Amino acid sequence: MKIKPGLLISVLVFLLFGSVGITAATEIAIETAVETAVETEIETAIETETETAIETETETETKASTEAVTEISSYDRAQEVEAAPGVETQVTTSERVTVHYCPAIYGDKIVWYNSTTDADVCMYDLSNSTMSNVSANEFDGYDPTVYEDRIVWIDSRNGYPEIYMYNLSTLTERRVTNFRSYKIGPDIYEDIIVWVDMRNGKYDIYMYDLSTSGETRITTSGLMQYPAIYDDRIVWTDSRNGQGNNDIYMYNISTARETQLTKDESDQLGPVIYDDKIVWTDMRNGNADIYMYNLSTCKESQITTNEYNQANPAIYGDKIVWVDYRRKHSGAYPDSDIYMYDLSTSKEMSVVTEGSSQSDPDIYGNRIVWVDNRDGYWQHYNIYMFTLETSEETGSIEPVEGLKKLKNYLNSLCLQPSTATVLNAKLDSAIAYLGKGEEEKSLTELENFIECVYSMQEKGRLEDKKVECIVSETHRSIDLMKTPDRI
Ligand SMILES: [Ca+2]
Ligand SMILES: [Ca+2]
Ligand SMILES: [Ca+2]
Ligand SMILES: [Ca+2]
User: Fold this and answer.
1) InterPro entries of this UniProt entry (predicted)?
2) How far is it, in rounded angstroms, from Cα 431 to Cα 187?
3) How far apart are the CA of 241 and the centre of ligand 4, in A?
């Protein structure tokens, strides 16, 4: 679950952190995605924020020059954080100009929008390595999110932004809203879609129930942003306690009760929710940190303590990911990285520390996606993915399950379709033999599979690091099949 879009929070990050926090990616994202009309609305909405931001701007600039001096020591400090184990893959490719933003992931599906010409919502299916355009019309489609087989986004084909949904199982599109107003940042959980709607002149949260086709206004004070939903709980950023003192609020759909979750007098921004855990960006320490509130224990905890900015979190299970500004590389362009915290091990790790900016992360299972501009500073923004290694899992699983996991793993690597087809065919054959109890034949197929992987490496169709990982995963499956009670 993550916040969509990153646009408003990017504006806020820009205003709060000035030259320190803004990335070229988010800057262009704002320009491209927010059409002229919407832009005016946002300008109006953040007018009050701007006043505060201007006051702190000088302060921020002073801090930026101090940071330049301490660059080496901050780099050294970053080295103390262990790199997360796993494999990185590039999802979208960068031929000529590419601008892909706002990725979200659920299961095998990654969605984002491409604003190269008019904006389109795209999807990559990791299970069969295919890419598709979900909103292929000449108008703008943007801010996508995905839940199971449902992709939700904002579409401007009717002259105003409306919420649309595409169902991947029934292959049908559905128009969700029908009101001439600006709408921002939809999120979905099961049958409930939430978003921010300006139909009353200010920002309120609305909800639509796909099962009843009923639309409900959740808030009335018009000071809400960034809604996120999990189960029957909607969370958002609320400025009713004053600008510079945003707080996190929650609405429970089942009980129709609203709760204020944070009381600190600084800004708490951009909440996301998974199960009983809500995480957000918190300004109470004078720099941005990630905080969490656990609804089961009613306890708030501080996730990051680094003196630089940590912002824009996403959460899945015990894993929290965010954009981290602790490493600053030399050069004219701002830098940011993706870091993570595992609540089950209490460990903070770096996910990607490549130069240039990495931003807007989302996470599902052991897959983390983000926007990356390492392929060219100005107009090259690609979607990348990191697959966290989960080595402890193989212990007691059946060999067939092991091979299916191997296949999922293979398909998570975003291989070229032709390469994926050949390798998948070999694995399917090994799985089929194993299913029929013909383990020797299955082992032979797996050995062929490894030969094939090496041959593709020689032809330059598979990168060395991927080969190493695929072969080691295959050997784990083979070992599983060769355990004494199996053969
Ligand atoms: Ca379009
Ligand atoms: Ca507050
Ligand atoms: Ca911090
Ligand atoms: Ca970076």
Assistant:
1) 6-blade_b-propeller_TolB-like, Beta_prop_Msarc
2) 38
3) 35
Q: Which ligand is nearest to the CA of 357?
A: 4
Q: How, if at all, do strands 358-364 and 183-189 pair? A: unpaired
Residue type, position 441, single letter? K
The DSSP 8-state label assigned to residue 483 in this structure reads S
Report the DSSP pairing between strands 380-388 and 98-106: parallel
Burial class of residue 322 (count of CB atoms within 10 Å of its CB; 0-12, 13-18, 19+): buried
Q: Which residues pair with 259 in a beta bridge?
A: 250
Instruction: Output the tens digit of pLDDT for each of the chain's 487 residues.
Output: 555 444 444 434 433 443 333 333 333 333 333 333 333 343 443 343 434 333 333 344 334 333 443 344 444 444 478 999 999 999 998 666 778 899 999 999 999 998 877 889 999 999 989 999 999 888 999 999 999 999 999 999 999 999 999 999 999 999 999 999 999 999 999 999 999 999 999 999 999 999 999 999 999 988 888 899 999 999 999 999 999 999 999 999 999 999 999 999 999 999 999 999 999 999 999 999 999 999 999 999 999 999 999 999 999 999 999 999 988 644 555 689 999 999 999 999 999 998 889 999 999 999 999 999 888 766 789 999 999 987 554 444 677 888 888 888 888 877 888 888 999 999 999 988 988 888 899 999 999 999 999 999 999 888 888 888 888 888 888 888 876 554 4
368 Cα to the center of ligand 3, angstroms:
21
Single out the residue of 101, 208, 236 nearest to residue 152, CA to CA: 208
Q: What is the 368 CA–ligand 2 centroid distance (Å)?
A: 29
Cα angle, residue 107 at apex, residues 83 and 218 outer, rounded to 5°: 105
Which ligand number lies closest to the CA of residue 351?
Answer: 4
Q: What is the DSSP letter of 267?
A: -
Please identify every residue whose CB atom is under 5 Å from ligand 1, which is an ion. Answer: 118, 120, 141
- Name every residue whose Cβ is closer than 8 Å to that of residue 137 and which is 6 or more positions away in sequence: 118, 155, 157
Separation of CA 141 and ligand 1 centre (Å): 5
Asked whether 137 and 57 are in contact (CB, 8 A), the reply is: no
| Cα angle: 256, vertex 249, 316; to 5 degrees | 100
Rounded to two decimals, the pTM is: 0.71
Ligand nearest to the backbone CA of 313: 3
How far is the centre of ligand 1, averaged over its atoms, from the C-alpha of 140 (Å)? 4
What spacing in Å lies between the alpha carbon of 219 and ligand 3's midpoint? 31
Q: Which of 337, 418, 410 is nearest to 371 (CA)?
A: 337
